[in-house]
Each structure stands twice: as structure tokens, then as C-alpha cells.
């Protein structure tokens, strides 16, 4: 056992006894915790909950009831200590572990909160979580060794580093759940970011790989959410601005007790008011025109939205009446005069023909066509014809 003066201090080395308590079934812990574990059902949170190192005593022994994946017989730690691996930086049973790292990687409570659409997807997620749980965590020394091997082109070292951090991807992916992309797809995209992080990790900088990989995982997942959840595509950098604007808006709402104005959001995020208004418009989710307006789905949104490009029914009727009156007025002209007027003003095909085109069509001079047009217009100005068209002037 490791002497601990402060139970909340960083645990640099996890002893073999504690790891075998977690993995194989036995450890020295307090009497209270012994009773809790003995009565807990295998597979529950209480059964899998990690114990504080401060509760572990050397004079109490408890048998851990294994889960289905761990076997059905409890194993005594004392009987296996002789065969335990020796202490060393390459030993997989000695893991440098911090409390915050443990919460980030091994949050069993989150494992019990898997949200899935159907039973098949949920079972697939649980199977995946069970598979990645078999890979042990790495110490800082192991990460540095693997990173140095990756720099030299060792593919197996890269695979080892990625497999040991797959649980980090799941932890981050769950934060983006219910954003229009399934959890399995989010995990897949996050794994791609994890692979990218393993390829670019530089151990010389002095921080842990999980800290470095978190940015790449979030970047890959957020890009996937931005590309697959919107009907209208928005660039990724704009989506990130929208997320930032929403976060600032929530903070201002908590501070002010009301919805913040665009000017207040603009000052907090260092953007113009016009840009904030534009981002707010982009953030609104599109609504389908086929969305039902009632439970019976008899009417849809498209049924009540005005088509600004379509002519109003009253205008259609008025236009038809005007055509009828013009047709009646043209009946007072001769056949050639009517043809000239209809072609000259586009009453037939909607195209107004020139005098040159009409002269070619009728095989007459342009002057003759002009004279026929003038005579026809004079006839149409008679009081009878004017009365038919006066209401449309």
C-alpha cells in the first residue's frame, strides 16, 4: 500500500491491490464499503463505483462479485501478489492517474446513461463501450514512449495510443448528443480526431496526451455536427460563432435576469450588432413546409403561407375580363388591322413586333404598316370601344 497523507492529493502510482480490486475482484477496503459492495447487484453503478483511496485499510478484506464479463469466481489478491508484475514504467498495472483524469476517462455513471433511438443502436453502443473498456490506461511515461515511436513511423505505437484513449472520445461525444447526429456517428468522427491527435502529438511540450487530444476530438465532432445537422449548409467557423453567441447569451441571461439585447451580446463577444443579428437569424432552425398544423395532419404549413410570386385570384379574374373586352373591341376592325394591332402590341404571343418585322410578314412597306396601325387605333378610339375599356384605364 502507498502511504497517503492527504486523501485528495494526486495519486502518482495505483498499486496492484487496487487495480486487481477493480479488474479481478478483491481489495482491502473499509467495512462500510465492504457491505455496500457485497449487497450491490453486479453491473450497477454502486457495484462499479470507484472507492476513495483514503477508505482502503490494510486490515479489512472483501471479495468483489465479478460482472458477467469478468468471470464468476472471486480471486484473492494475496494469493496473486507473488505473480504480480514488478513495478516499472512499462508495466500496464501501474498507471499514473489523477482524480480529474479518472473522472474524464472512467465515468461509469455516464456509461449507464446511454441515450439511443432504438434498441439495436443502444445495444451497439453498449457493446462498443464494453470493447474499449478492455484497453488499459497509459501513464505519462508510456505516452511519451509511444509518442517517440510514432514520430519514427511506428504504426503499432499509434494504434496503442489511440486504443488507450477511446474512452475519452465517448466522454466528449456524449456532450454533443441530441444535436441531430447519432451517438455512434459522433464517436466515429471523434475517433478520427483522436487519430489525428496521435499523429501530431509532441511529448516534448510537457502536457498529457488527453489534454492535447481533447481539442482535436471536439473539432472533429463539431465539424460533423455542423455539416450533417442543418438543411442549409453553414461554414464551420460560422457555426462555432453561433455556439459562442449562444453561450454568451445564456451567461448574460443569468447575470441580467432577462434576454440580452443584440448590443449587449455584441459588446461581450466583440462583434458588431449587425453581425449578431445575422448570426441569430442563422441560428434559427428551419421548419419544413410539410409540417402538420394539427394532430390529424390534415393541414400543413404550406397550406397557409402566401406565395408572393403567384398572382392574386382577383388580378387573374381582372386580367381575363380585360382580354375579353379587348377582343370585343378588336372585332370592329378589319382582319388585317386586327392582326397588325395584335402583333404590334403583343396581344398574341406577348412579344411586340417592330414595323420592320411586320413589313416582312405582310410583305408591305413599313410606311404602309404604320398607316394601317394609325387607322386601327383611330377606330378603337370611337366612343363605343372607349366605353368597353374605360374601367381598365
Automatic annotation (TrEMBL):
Region of interest: Disordered: 57-93
Domain of life, per lineage: Bacteria
Keyword set, alphabetical order: DNA-binding, Sigma factor, Transcription, Transcription regulation
Any GO molecular function: sigma factor activity
PROSITE patterns per the UniProt record, alphabetical: SIGMA70_1, SIGMA70_2
Domain RNA polymerase sigma-70: 185-198, 354-380
GO biological process: DNA-templated transcription initiation
Biased composition (Polar residues): 64-82
Reported function: Sigma factors are initiation factors that promote the attachment of RNA polymerase to specific initiation sites and are then released.
Entry similarity comment: Belongs to the sigma-70 factor family.
Protein name per its UniProtKB record: RNA polymerase sigma factor
Amino acid at each position: 500500500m502507498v502511504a497517503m497523507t492527504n486523501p485528495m492529493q494526486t495519486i502518482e502510482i495505483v498499486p496492484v491491490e487496487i487495480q486487481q480490486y477493480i479488474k479481478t475482484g478483491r481489495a482491502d477496503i473499509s467495512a462500510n464499503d465492504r457491505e455496500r459492495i457485497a449487497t450491490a447487484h453486479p453491473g450497477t453503478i454502486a457495484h462499479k463505483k470507484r472507492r476513495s483511496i483514503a477508505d482502503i485499510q490494510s486490515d479489512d478484506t472483501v471479495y468483489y462479485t465479478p460482472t458477467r464479463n469478468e468471470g464468476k469466481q472471486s480471486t484473492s489478491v494475496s494469493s496473486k501478489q507473488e505473480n504480480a508484475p514488478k513495478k516499472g514504467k512499462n508495466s500496464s498495472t501501474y498507471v499514473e492517474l489523477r482524480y480529474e483524469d479518472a473522472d474524464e476517462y472512467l465515468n461509469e455513471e455516464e456509461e449507464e446513461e446511454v441515450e439511443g433511438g432504438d434498441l439495436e443502436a443502444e445495444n451497439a453502443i453498449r457493446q462498443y463501450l464494453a470493447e474499449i473498456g478492455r484497453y488499459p490506461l497509459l501513464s505519462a511515461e508510456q505516452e511519451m514512449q509511444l509518442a517517440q515511436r510514432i514520430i519514427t513511423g511506428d504504426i503499432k505505437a499509434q494504434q496503442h495510443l489511440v486504443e488507450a484513449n477511446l474512452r475519452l472520445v465517448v466522454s466528449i461525444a456524449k456532450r454533443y448528443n441530441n444535436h441531430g447526429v447519432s451517438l455512434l456517428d459522433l464517436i466515429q468522427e471523434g475517433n478520427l480526431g483522436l487519430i489525428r491527435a496521435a499523429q501530431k502529438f509532441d511529448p516534448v511540450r510537457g502536457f498529457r496526451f488527453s489534454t492535447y487530444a481533447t481539442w482535436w476530438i471536439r473539432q472533429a465532432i463539431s465539424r460533423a455536427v455542423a455539416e450533417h445537422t442543418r438543411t442549409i449548409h453553414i461554414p464551420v467557423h460560422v457555426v462555432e460563432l453561433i455556439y459562442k453567441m449562444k453561450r454568451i447569451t445564456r451567461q448574460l441571461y443569468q447575470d441580467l435576469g432577462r434576454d440580452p439585447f443584440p448590443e449587449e451580446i455584441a459588446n461581450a463577444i466583440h462583434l458588431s450588432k449587425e453581425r449578431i443579428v445575422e448570426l441569430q437569424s442563422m441560428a434559427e432552425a428551419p421548419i419544413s413546409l410539410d409540417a402538420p398544423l394539427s394532430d390529424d395532419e390534415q393541414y400543413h404549413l404550406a397550406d397557409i403561407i402566401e406565395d408572393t410570386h403567384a398572382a392574386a385570384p382577383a388580378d387573374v379574374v381582372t386580367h381575363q375580363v380585360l382580354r375579353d373586352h379587348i377582343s370585343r373591341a378588336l372585332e370592329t376592325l378589319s382582319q388585317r388591322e386586327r392582326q397588325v394591332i395584335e402583333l404590334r402590341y403583343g396581344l398574341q404571343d406577348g412579344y411586340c413586333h417592330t414595323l420592320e418585322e411586320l413589313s416582312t410578314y405582310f410583305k408591305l412597306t413599313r410606311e404602309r404598316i404604320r398607316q394601317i396601325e394609325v387607322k386601327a387605333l383611330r377606330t378603337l378610339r370611337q366612343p363605343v370601344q372607349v366605353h368597353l375599356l374605360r374601367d381598365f384605364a
